[in-house]
Design goal:
The complex is a heterodimer of chains A (about 300) and B (about 375). With about 300 residues, chain A is mainly alpha-helical. In chain A, about 70% of the residues lie in helices and about 5% in strands. Chain A contains eleven helices and four strands; from the N terminus they run ααααβββααααβααα. In chain A, helix 1 packs across helix 6 and helix 2 packs parallel to helix 4. The radius of gyration of chain A is 19 Å and the shape is globular. Chain B is of the alpha/beta class and about 375 residues long. Chain B has twelve helices and 16 strands. Chain B has a seven-stranded mixed β-sheet with strand order 8-7-9-10-11-15-16, sandwiched between helices. The mean pLDDT of chain B is about 90. The chains are: A mainly alpha (about 300), B alpha/beta (about 375). Chains A and B meet through helix 1, strand 1 and helix 10 of A and helix 2, strand 8, helix 7, helix 8 and helix 9 of B.
Chain lengths: ~300, ~375
């Protein structure tokens, strides 16, 4: 196994890591603002995938339009979930909201099952993303480059929003002290809606790219990436946007490298990912880039 | 409370039922209608339903089919059997489509002495040490042997790589049988990669296979994973032909795999071009008329499970579970949809196997291998 082999794993690991990272950012932002693990977040991948799929297949839309609509609708769904499921519970114990999140997740999955059915569908990959670069033994799928590029741009945009805009400032303030922010005359509900929308848009982007990379659409497709992204968010330090992206990257790398180098361990892929999480949390309970958030 | 209410309601309904209506024979079915292998459950169920159209009655009593979804999950499969036996009072059960779930479900049926016929669970453990569990398909040792022979003789492979799902009994066992047979025939396994149901990224496993440079890849796995593996292999420039088992035989393989699955060989239960029995011809005609779809392997196998069960009830002359079991165990040269089937007292079937291939986006029949 030469350098090529490891470079190859680096590319595949980065691709997977980007997808985890994009989803993880949504988890982390919502947690930062509301202290809520939004378990329905992973299922937004599935929703975005299906909307994009039906846009192309049923309504014959060109793919950029279909992808844009899917992203926008998923963003709206994020707001809707917050307004419908979490807002009424804003002043209830945190555990109620958590259970509701699991409920929403089941609702989305089973709605998918009832409306669309359980058999997997093939996601149409636009030609632009097809093909791959060959460099000797090294294969770089064009889609991997796109995923890396799009993730970088989106991450930059999110960082700009969080650190350079008014609403971003409000989000950060909310994560420090919810009550005081309200007293300052900031409409907390609007800021929360915005957070959900932003997170959901990222999940949609991640979902569509996930579908292109692993083109088997089914109602439960969001569960595993959602779980992994949650791990990534905790790994990077929940509440921290850059940490979530970093956590996603690390998790993607770890999964790919371990399986490639030790194929006989490949059955323990998830176990290893979670062992890494436990180790990091034992040494750094707040995650890699986590900071103290007031409870 | 709900149970008591249900009981009272049932008693009320029975008391008020018209005296002349014959009591139906309740046959349970537990199938993966949703989840990872939903395609099998849905195909199997459509086959069973059309089969019921053909023979809606047995012993002059109507057949009452009760379906429970197993969500492709072992725990749900076991629960489904509890429900079919304890609540629905089924006298016999059809299911499951895949081995792991059938093994999970068969325990309770064996304990309660309710005969069960699986259309397509091929793992040897399914019927092992079980008196009441039957299947109408071949088993994995036979399938592994045929696949190894195909790999050595037809595909001229000297080396092979294995990739399989370690959370499925079917995949693990079939990989093992292939490994044994292939090595015995002079071949060499140069790489072995594993994954778990639900995994979607196989690039690291395929990288390690690629660096071992095998002549063929044996992938005894289910259709979704098989299609994705073929796709990712093609993308990585891994061009060794893929050989797989009956678990890949679903239209989803073609839809998800596209041109990546061209040239995939597999051992399977059935191809409509091999139909030889009268029952098969009639059934195919009706099936295509009723559903508007072409008859596939899993629908045909589901239908055979139903027909064989009804045949056993007829020969037993009673819908009593123990008698059905005895009749099932003595099934001899039954003319099913998929060919002549005999059941052995150990629960296994003596049945032909077919080899299929993917060509031009279709499943193409290659040959039949008789037992």
């Amino acid at each position: 196994m030469g350098l090529d082999f490891y470079l190859q794993q680096l590319i595949f690991g980065a691709t997977l890591g980007c997808l985890y990272g994009l989803v993880a950012i949504g988890y982390t932002m919502v947690y930062g603002v509301l202290r809520l693990i939004n378990f329905a977040h992973g299922d937004l991948l599935m929703v975005a995938g299906y909307i994009a799929f039906y846009g192309i297949i049923m309504f014959q839309l060109p793919w950029p339009v279909s992808f844009a609509i899917a992203t926008a609708l998923t963003g709206c769904l994020g707001i809707l979930i917050d307004r419908g499921a979490y807002k009424p519970l804003r002043n209830s114990p945190r555990i109620s909201a958590l259970i509701t999140a699991i409920g929403v997740s089941f609702l989305l999955e089973n709605l998918g099952l009832v409306i669309i059915g359980g058999r997997p569908k093939s996601f149409p990959k636009p030609e632009l993303f097809d093909g791959s670069l060959m460099m000797g033994d090294l294969v770089i799928p064009n889609l991997s480059l796109w995923i890396l590029g799009i993730t970088a741009v989106l991450l930059l945009l999110v960082m700009l929003v969080v650190h350079r805009t008014k609403v971003g400032m409000a989000m950060r303030a909310l994560s420090r002290d919810f009550e005081t922010v309200r007293l300052m005359g900031i409409d907390a509900d609007r800021v929360i809606s915005f957070t959900f929308m932003l997170g959901s848009i990222l999940a949609a982007a991640g979902g569509i790219m996930w579908c292109m990379r692993y083109p088997a659409l089914e109602p439960f497709m969001g569960v595993i990436p959602g779980l992994k992204a949650f791990v990534a968010a905790v790994l990077g330090g929940i509440g921290n946007v850059a940490g979530a992206a970093l956590g996603g990257f690390l998790l993607g790398f770890a999964e790919v490298i371990i399986v490639a180098v030790k194929p006989e361990w490949s059955g323990y892929r998830d176990a290893i990912a979670f062992a890494v999480l436990i180790l990091v949390l034992l040494t750094r309970p707040k995650g890699i880039m986590g900071e103290d958030l007031p409870d | 409370m709900a149970g008591r209410l249900f009981g009272a309601l049932a008693a009320f309904l029975i008391m008020n039922a018209p005296a002349y209506a014959a009591e139906p024979v309740v046959i349970g079915a537990y199938l993966p209608m949703t989840g990872g292998v939903a395609a099998y459950g849905q195909m199997g169920w459509s086959g069973i339903q059309v089969a019921k159209r053909v023979e809606p009655e047995v012993l002059g009593r109507p057949v009452d089919l009760r379906l429970v979804d197993t969500k492709s999950d072992k725990v749900d499969a076991a629960n489904a059997v509890f429900r079919l036996i304890d609540k629905e009072k089924a006298v016999a059960i059809i299911g499951e489509m895949i081995s792991g779930n059938t093994i999970a479900g068969s325990d309770h049926a064996e304990r309660m002495e309710i005969p069960m016929v699986s259309p397509t669970a091929t793992n040897p453990i399914v019927t092992q040490n079980k008196k009441y569990i039957f299947r109408v398909c071949f088993t994995d040792p036979e399938q592994g042997q045929v696949a190894a022979k195909l790999a050595r003789e037809q595909l001229k492979a000297g080396t092979a790589a294995l990739i399989y799902d370690i959370s499925q009994d079917y995949c693990v066992a079939l990989a093992k049988f292939f490994r044994e047979e292939f090595t015995k025939a002079g071949g060499r396994i140069v790489a072995e990669a594993k994954f778990k149901s639900g995994d979607r990224d196989f690039t690291p496993q395929l990288s390690s296979i690629k660096s071992a440079k095998p002549d063929i890849i044996y992938a005894p796995i289910y259709y979704t994973e098989c299609a994705l593996i073929a796709k990712q292999a093609l993308e990585m420039g891994l061009r060794a032909p893929i050989l797989t088992g009956d678990g890949a035989h679903a239209p989803e393989l073609l839809q998800l795999g596209g041109k990546a699955v061209e040239g995939v060989y597999f051992t399977g239960h059935f191809h409509k071009e091999m139909i030889s029995t009268d029952r098969g011809k009639k059934f195919m005609e009706l099936y295509e008329k009723e559903t508007g779809k072409q008859l596939d392997a899993f629908s045909a196998m589901g239908a055979d499970a139903y027909f064989i069960l009804l045949d056993a009830i007829k020969r037993a002359g009673s819908a009593q579970s123990k008698k059905i079991r005895e009749a099932l165990a003595s099934t001899k040269d039954f003319e099913g949809v998929t060919g002549k089937i005999s059941l052995k007292p150990d629960g296994n079937a003596i049945k032909p196997m077919v080899i299929n291939k993917v060509k031009d986006g279709k499943f193409v029949y290659v040959t039949t291998i008789n037992p």
